[in-house]
């Protein structure tokens, strides 16, 4: 099944296993003329790098990106941009037991069911390392969006029972806390909670929120390729995500219409909304407000307690996972959610350029 | 933007506006040899028909489907199946005011922003009537899945503050209650709540749950086309859906790994799970358990109270919507969620047939 | 197999069998704001209508198109345009024998091999009637291209041994001769040749040429989606086409480089070519010259002579086809080639709008 | 524009410029369980390697492939197979002049028109070196097809005025002659012709033919994704191809139906054809006979004579190309045509596995 591509006009295709030679991505459809260096990509990759804090795996993955094509004299040429991230920290010996024993909460059994066997080293293709390739592509999308006046901010909204408070919202904390929470007080509590989880050989889940400003009204499509539908696919395709919300999301389902509708008003020649319960999307199309989404991540399935499971020869057994695993994926997933959101919105913006006949006529006749 | 298609191998493309001549769909890629009649489709369409109960719009939409192609002597031929549902109940006069005034919570403003103008009659392409075409296609997908041993059940999980109780779960109630709740006691309370909403000229949201049994382990793809990612897109593409959950969904984010992992065990030569927090999908691939998802619907934005809004010439104004509108879309959306789920799972099953070399060799060499 | 769609941004999906209820097409991705009436479509459909001349089948196919969606108050809305052409002249009784006997040169046996059975009436889905749906879509593409300054002209280049002469080229003859040849003298000879074919119960092949003016340099893509590759697919997908040439085509293969290269020169601030052996495309991208292609059609396989063949139960037999069949498909195929070319070029022009970063920035920031 | 992918279920995406760091390809959708080594790929790459004979460029391109992902313990895993071919022989200094001067017959001007600038070194993305990535992917497709009983043979049919003779057809000569002609006598004459071309600082074109045996009846799709349409796109997407023929191709257009139809007959429980004018495809679907196609290549545009052209600042000038260029691309293109054919046929075979309901039911219920 050819399911490793995402996007229509700004299309990415990823490859690579956790312990293979390299991960990477081809970005096909990137407009020509963008200034682009490996540094632009590296900044994003460093945001998901493990081994940075005590709540992250002690693996040293350098994740150094190399651009193989599509950039000439510092600018994108409009041809495919291939990027490669060699795998350098591969302790395959950690993974011997899981070759035959299915880890609960992991895709081992599903891969074997589908493909007959699998690259079991470190999760292989199902490893969260795969998201490094997405981030490399997302870095390019973000840079393009930025030049169009569209900006994204993602952060940790909650970890386990600890949520950020709007009262303490501090954007500078996102990059400075180990949890990527924009609330230093919540970060402290979440860190304590995670320390306790680690002590108990357990793990935690959490929520990432992403806010996009500057998206003009009109982006997205009426039916299947609704902007929120594409965002949901994008975000749900990140391993460990179990729910996606747009705007007020789940809360909307228990409200009345009079509470949930956002009133429009005119303000200096622009149409705005008094509230933004909708999260910036109505009928699948952006309304000019901030786009807001949340991804709910399950707790890391790799825990260091004894678990009941089976082998690939159908024997009941117990498994005690060893190795290096984050007690929570959320802080490192923040940049992944941001990048998948960027990829989706850029693709929708590009598709929108042919929505009206006068766009075409102006483009070709002027 | 060409966003009216869904699916890769079992691909549907819908057309039609609320008050145009007809709605319809082309199903391309339907396998040959399926017994199919208009009755098979009509049974599904009748499940979303309005005017059936007091909590539904009093419009009389007959929604009679006509098969135009792709069926010969009662069997599908493998060529495109076009289906048309003529629009017969079109009281366009109800919609004069909204030609120029943007309804809060609706896509009117977004459509105008995107396309420059819109077919404003009854919401045009953004009307929930568009889902009739999806249901017609989903009826075919469901019939195929059924012959493969895969069965779907969708129902209303909650309306406003009223949720069903597992203790009262009664599948027969789904088709017999006006709320499509599998719990007659909850149905009674929800109906009372809706009556109150209507009295207040207000509306309600709610939740639809869909359960799929019989999906073998191995369906879905590791990265972007994860089965849960495709399901999320499918379900979020239904108008008014603001959140999607897989399995325990949002609840997983506040759990510990030891609470959320599903232990495997061997049972009579099969691998099973002691729990199903995952909702039948791990790493984007089905694990052989029931697939469970929930769609959260916002309250109907068409309420009969006075609302603040703007005109398309940017004048602030007040709008009082008239016409015929359901106080809640959830009961009629149940079959839509079921159909979008069926379409997604069938497409994934079809793609899975090429996952292994021996599948190809057996198919072509035997 | 879902192979009934063509195009990425301007995407069409056709349906219908020769003797089913209707043929039709959904045009998805048509820009909003195009003035469009059924008359615009009908003019194109009438160009492929049978029963117009003595060299065409005496069937009376009215081919009246009906627009079902996507047009509001005379303008396209940006949502899918569904068009239906009811089948009115269905003499199914002519086709009894071919239900079980495979016609040489036809797809009967191939359809049965693929799908297990087929709608055998009049060729079913493999009938040339299917191209009516393409023409309906192509009429819209042509109208859009025209507003962009791009114009197409297709005509019959040869029938059997009779070719047009450049010396007698007369564009007005295309619509006035029964062969659609732009050369009245060649038309007379071709008509005589066809009369002789009919007398012998035989049929003829021929060549259609299409010339496109006004395509700016830069349309098309470097690798797989080369403009000439997409045109080849488009034209070869017309039944009975067995070869496609771009520019000088086959002649180029026996030339030397010094004979085949087109020299560039600057002329009033524009780059032009002294010759156009390339047919307007270099490296898959338009060069600003006229785009020229030719489609080579085999003779109509339905001939009224006795032919050796087999039944679907593998008995050797003889078949004498009856019914109403054109002795040559070429004149009616002229508009089909033109329409497939238009669809391909429009789609490529739309995709080209995102080729450079400054296109995006100008579009969204101005 | 995202046009660097080919195929639906067996999908390849290529990257790389002539003088960038590397060329490569991601093969997505390769079935799991295929034995695959770099040697399997290398054998195919070596067939298009330059510097092997006196009629080829004296460049030493080693074209050593490295598999980066998707293979584990010698078998494909079903996940994307990334392959990289580092560029090692890069004499960029040869290409200084063409940075500003447009080479006749090349895509330089078209790339600048489209993207605003280009990687001018060695043709950049428009270089024939790009086809190395296709061959790497095609090697995998060929190996899979072989296990399904489908075999491909491609060879040079003609160079300039010299064609092979059926009387001298000798398959062993394909890999042993420098022209890849299956006719040693024709090879001698073609080699003499090419020597004369080189002496005159000129170049030659030619024709490649590909024959595919073992394709069962039923492969391909009725309308746009006809097998011959997909093959045409595949082959025309190879740089320098200006025409594609299926079966008798162009010859069919001047025949009568009675001459061109292939009579069916039953032979030991199989349906066969007495002739194969159709080249194994009827109505877009394989008929069980050999599939035959021809690609017509223009002469190499890089000739060492003085040519009229313009600069990118629109000055008329003369250009004398230097560097290392094949006087004919045909012998090295033989394996490229074969690989594009293999990729197309494999994808069509994979799509065909869902053509009938009983295929699905048997697959999932047995």
Descriptors:
5-stranded antiparallel sheet; FMN (chains A, B, C, D); Chorismate synthase (chains A, B, C, D); Chorismate synthase, AroC fold; 366 residues; Chorismate_synth_AroC_sf (chains A, B, C, D); 28% helix; alpha+beta; chorismate synthase activity (chains A, B, C, D); homotetramer
Order of strands in the sheet with the most strands of chain A? 1-2-3-7-4
CATH topology of chain A: the name is: Chorismate synthase, AroC fold
Largest sheet of chain A: 5 strands, antiparallel
Tally of helical runs of chain A: 9
Shape of chain A: globular
Subunit structure (chains A, B, C, D): Homotetramer.
Protein name (chains A, B, C, D): Chorismate synthase
Binding site for FMN (chains A, B, C, D): 125-127, 283, 298-302, 324
EC number (chains A, B, C, D): 4.2.3.5
Write a structural description:
- Four copies of one chain form a homotetramer.
- Chain A is of the alpha+beta class and 366 residues long.
- Chain A has a single domain, classed as Chorismate synthase AroC (Chorismate synthase, AroC fold), CATH 3.60.150.
- Chain A has helices at residues 38-47, 108-115, 131-147, 173-176, 184-199, 227-236, 257-260, 330-352, 357-365, and strands at residues 5-6, 11-15, 22-28, 66-67, 71-72, 75-76, 81-86, 151-159, 162-163, 206-213, 241-246, 264-267, 270-273, 281-282, 285-286, 291-297, 306-310, 316-320.
- The longest helix of chain A is centred in the last third of the chain and has 23 residues, at 330-352.
- Chain A is globular.
- The termini of chain A are far apart.
- Chains in contact: A-B, A-C, A-D, B-C, B-D, C-D.
- Chains A and B meet through strand 1, helix 2, helix 6, strand 11 and helix 7 of A and strand 1, helix 2, helix 6, strand 11 and helix 7 of B.
